[in-house]
Amino acid sequence: MVLIVFLLAYIVRRRLDTHNSLSGDKLWRHWFHQAVKVEAGHESGIAGGLALVVLPALILGLGMYLLDAVGWRVVGYPIEWLILILMMGAPGWRPILQSYSVSWQRGDMQAAWLIVEDRLPPEERGAASSPDVMHLTLSKAFLVGVFQRFFLVGFWYVVGGIGLAVLARGLVALSEQWPQAAARTRFQRLAEWMAWLPVRLLSVTFGIAGDLAGWLREFPASVGGVSKKTADVLMISANGSLTGYALDPERFSRIHPDEWVDFGGRSLGAILDLLNRSMLVWICGLALLVIFGVL
């Protein structure tokens, strides 16, 4: 049932994303703003934020365990399905990427920047001084966003149940949306710990779903780096797994100067295809685990 629940939730969530509906980020933002105001000098504290994530995760995990103990586990599957739909999803990216690609094709880099500015990490918005840097920053934000909202949730749901899935997604939400900005760095470190194993599994999946030879060349710098952050692992792995210099704008512009106007759209399309193929690999792997009785 784990495979069926996740697969149905993924299909519905992708459909909702297509229509830019039901943003999980908005739900988290509303939930966090119910928190009690922090006293002056304690803005970096994380106890309140952790409580708002850990308690619901614990309640859900315990609830599913009790349902299983009394033989009513089937009642929990619709609940898990609904929660997965709420936890997953990256609505809003599709129109942004389409508009960005059109602006890139027109050569209007200022318009492209204005389109994607709000989607970039605040600390990196001022660093995009050239089209190359802007595009790599956007690509990294897109990769990380999709990983955190699909693969991270799916991994912990399969491994530890809906409670751990909510915990992992909640830590990501805290690192992005907690009202006290001073605490977000600490939440981000916790989210990195939760992402350490699944992001490396996704990195291996990139090699399977993409250019394996290219991925192997980048292996020591990505999966081999124990202290590498999530964004770095994703970018290095994706760059090795993609062909046609999809994540190397500088080299692409030298080798294919006449096709530079199409680079933005082609690169983002290649990244999206790689992510879709990787999710298919995960679903097939999950199906094999079910067939062999592991799940």
TrEMBL record:
The keyword Manganese does not apply. The chain crosses the membrane at residues 46-67, 74-93, 150-172, 193-216, 274-294. Keywords: Membrane, Transmembrane, Transmembrane helix. Coiled coil: none annotated. It comes from the Bacteria. The keyword Transmembrane applies. InterPro entries: Beta-lactamase_Reg. This is Regulatory signaling modulator protein AmpE. The gene is ampE.
